[in-house]
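Invent a record, attention on tokens:
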Amino acid sequence: MTPPTEASSTISADRQSFAWRIVKTTAIAALVFLVLAVVWYCSQALLLVFGGILFAIFLRSLGNLVRKVLPVSQTWGVAIAGILLLVLAGLGVWLLSASAVDQASQLSRKIPESMQKLKERLEGHPWTRGLVSGLDSGQLFASSAKALQQAAGIFSSVIGAVTGFLIIFFVGLYLAFQPDPYRNNLIRLWPLEKRERARQVLFRIGHMLQWWIVGRLAAMAVVAILTTVGDWALGVPLPLALGILAGLLNFIPNVGPVMSIVPAVLLALTVRPMLAVWVIPLYLGIQTVEGYLIAPLIERQTVALPPAFTIFFQVLMAVLLGILGLTFATPLAVTLVVLVQMVYIEDTLGDHQGGLESPEERKD
């Protein structure tokens, strides 16, 4: 029989061990909660940094293409790619700025005229006369004062967008020129025996994001070309500018294509109201073709995420983080899928049956 003193010391040790486990578990839970709170509070900044990482991957990819043509180092390849991008952007702004300014001035004059003509046409039909009864030019634009009051808010939004773009640009530029210090310091956060695997995971994420960028740019280019040709065929002013805008906005899932319709409709109204009516089915048709034909064909050659998961993640990011979350929802989903596949399914569960694959792996 165990002596009472020995039994009591065993019970005391068990109690201390249990209390220590409770303290340890509570501390870990508090740390996890603190990390999640910091991530949530800094979510907008973290998304901008993630956008910078995407831009860095894009620049590095262009730099690799330059190196296939010119015998230069990786740094010089990135520098040449960045200079070419700036030259192309400046050339596009220079070619479009004069006509864009002229069309903007015409837009401010012609939209009230088009709205008045539309009102007169509606009043000419008995079944639509009730919709516009009591409306006149003054009432139609009575909200002008309110719009002016909101100008400060719009101005601050524009400043915020420009600031976000500059953050993405410079973060991407620094990462593209010198990615090794950042990558190596991130890998050093892991234990020694896990660092090689962490390096493989980071390389895999970068590789899949690179292919996602290729697919996204291809879809944006197709939308820009189709929109330009369609607007030109209909006679909408500034077809090239509208096509480029539609291609750029196509980067934002779901919302971007809808946003691209608005300037096209407004410009069409400066010509005639019925032209604006034809613009809407044109844009809807292009987005339908892009969503159900072009995008699946491109995804077969790049990165194909499960559609239901992609839509769910886009909606979740839009609800939690707004338009910025929606913008980067799909590349974040790619990153999440790779992490779950390599860290949990392969390393924890031991299942190596495959998951998200790049085009080279599909061919193999």
